[in-house]
Amino acid sequence: MTGHHSYTGRFAPSPSGPLHFGSLIAALASFLDARHHHGQWLLRMEDIDEPRCVGGADKLILDTLEAHHLHWDGEVMYQSAEHARYQALTDQFIRQGLAYRCSCTRKMIKEAGGTYPGTCRDKHITGDGTAIRLKMTSPVTRFDDRIMGQVHVTDAHALEDTVLKRRDGLFSYNLVVVADDIHQGVTHIVRGSDLLTTTATHLSLYKLLQARAPAYAHVPVASVSEGRKLSKQNHAAALNNATPSENLAAALNFLGLALPEDGINAPPAEVLQWAVEHWGCDRIPRQREIIVAASESTYHRPFIFCGI
Ligand SMILES: [Zn+2]
Prior knowledge:
single chain, three-stranded parallel beta sheet
């Protein structure tokens, strides 16, 4: 077990393609925060949604992290090997009356206004081919984020009876991410702000499980235009493993840690060492997204020099 450290962080990519600039930002931010605090940094492949996973993408991700000297601690965890644990947790929720089976279709929920109104809560539905939903009787709506400050979530989707297991048998992201972070003893989560409102759902799960919640820090996501984060869907370029220092410099600049001029040509290990020393949540832009411009090899945020 890895649960006895005062700081345990992690990076949890989904192996649906190679890492791009947006994923480098999340990897780098979580790595730097962990190393700055002398913590360990774990790696987890979020391959629970198997239909979306691409064969060999996990290997590409590991190669890219190695090329950027982002070395993780311990063995890589694969969610696809952990089904029994997720099933046991789902069963436990049902046994405790904290979850229930739901037979509503997507169409029915849409007709009910788009958010799930708890239709099946007291129907005592049994059997397969149904979704399993969490009874969110007292959802968490407020939390403190190390970067964003106090967050108040009003988004109805973050507060509805969240799906733990889908009708097609897939476990939900919300269930597995919390289950794994507890299982791996994760104390600090640093990730993209696209998950800011979802954090309320995660905190509700921690509360129901009577587990200690981690500290959260949400960094801005890189977007190609307003509301469109850089992703495989909008053809984000794979990181070039031959230019790790350049990629790291661009990602650091994005995070508010522009390298001193003479640092840009340093090898990646030196770039990271500098960044670990200079890391601090107060330097990170308190924004949910930053629009980046694509250049030939990478993406850039306009260079901002903060007190270097
Ligand atoms: Zn239902």
